[in-house]
Amino acid sequence: MQALRVSELGEPRDVLELVESPLPQPGPNQVLVRVAAAPVNFPDALMCRGQYQVKPETPFTPGVELCGEIVELGSGVGGFSTGERVIGAGAVPTGGFAEYALMDAARTFPAPSALSDAEAASLFIGYQTGWFGLHRRGALREGETLLVHAASGGVGSAAVQLGKAAGATVIGVVGGPEKAEVARELGADVVIDRRSEDFVRVVKETTGGRGADVIYDPVGGETYERSTKCVAFEGRILIIGFASGKIPTPGLNHALIKNYSIVGLHWGLYNERDPAAVREAHDGLSRMADEGRISPLVSRRIGLSELAEATQSVADGHTVGRVVYANS
Q1: Fewer CB within 10 Å, N side or C side of the chain?
Q2: Residue 290 included in any domain
Q3: Overall domain count for the chain
Q4: The pLDDT of residue 180
Q5: What residue stretches are annotated with the Enoyl reductase (ER) domain (predicted)?
Q6: What are the distances in angstroms from CA 285 to CA 10, 202, 249?
Q7: C-beta neighbour count of 204 within 10 angstroms
């Protein structure tokens, strides 16, 4: 089979190599799938650089989420059958950037029938992160104001749709007119182009000076620091990630004075600490997809040979929606 392999760490376009590789064999509690689609995620780029919290030994194949058809069950796997269409996490080092991949059964779920392969493949990480962030950690309530940074990206676009589905007023922050149009298509009530507008000023104007009740921040750095200037009294700033590459140092005295919460989210830990909650979230997201309330935005479908450059584009912040490898 063909697969993208990382033999040495570096920039994705430099280290992702298309190779012929033997078909992987499922271990206990694993399934082998024929990959139907695999989105490019920021963690895939970080793995190539050796900067992600999960650091597989080289050589490895990235692809942290995917949609595929089960072709073989490992020992101890119950509840699945060959031919079943599933989504979930790629079991790196044999991840989804290949024609076939392994998945751990505990992190594998039925694919929603309402979604295409590319859409279904994009439902797992971004939407689960949004679900746990907005509902379990951020306690977003109907009628509140939600500010989403990087609103046209993979994680941000999911938060916009989930915020609207929860009955919030959603303000999306993006970089550039193309990304602004995407955020509007996703349903954001107000869209701010940070390159030409001050998001702090616009948020205050939009909310009558109150500020945003929940701020969804996958960027970090200066974005976090400026967000503290427009968070509402008893608001919640959700720390989702640091796509800017800069980890901010919170001013805890400021959080005390304004009575807001700084709330961390490492969604991956729930797979270990509360897998039942992950499955419950999947069921809820699948119902929402079947009802047409959410639908991952797939901006590009690409082949294996285009994945290295696409992963670099995601790393550099040059993409909108989801860029998805489609194996068909």
Answers
A1: C
A2: no
A3: 2
A4: 95
A5: 11-325
A6: 35, 31, 34
A7: 16
Q: Is the same domain home to 137 and 253?
A: yes
What one-character DSSP code corresponds to residue 22? P
**Residues 267/125, Cβ–Cβ less than 8 Å:** yes
Range of the domain at 76: 2-123+296-326
CATH number for the domain harbouring residue 81: 3.90.180.10
Question: Which segments of the chain have a pLDDT < 50?
Answer: none
CA 128/CA 52 separation, integer angstroms: 19
Strand pairing of 85-89 and 65-73? antiparallel
**pLDDT tens-digit map of 141-200:** 999 999 999 999 889 999 999 999 999 999 999 999 999 999 999 999 999 999 999 999
CA 218 to chain centre: 10
**SS3 category, 238:** strand
Query: What is the average pLDDT value for the chain, to the nearest integer?
Result: 95
Measured distance CA(177)–CA(31) in Å, rounded: 42
**274 in a structural domain:** no
CATH code assigned at 253: 3.40.50.720
Give the three-state DSSP class for 170. strand
| C-alpha dihedral sign at 61, 64, 65, 69 | positive
250 and 311, same domain (yes or no): no
Asked if residues 43 and 60 have their Cβ atoms less than 8 Å apart, the reply is: no
256/131 same-domain check: yes
Tell me the CA distances in angstroms from 69 to 109, 220, 327, one per residue in order: 11, 37, 11
Question: Which residues in 10-24 are b (16+ Cβ under 10 Å) and which e?
Answer: eebbebbebeebeeb
Closest listed residue to residue 199, CA positions, set 162, 174, 163, 220: 174
List phi, psi (to 5°) of 17: -120, 130
The residue behind tokens 């392999």 is: 5
Task: State pTM to two decimals.
Answer: 0.92
Assess whether 137 and 233 both reside in one domain: yes
24 and 116 assigned to the same domain: yes
DSSP 19: E
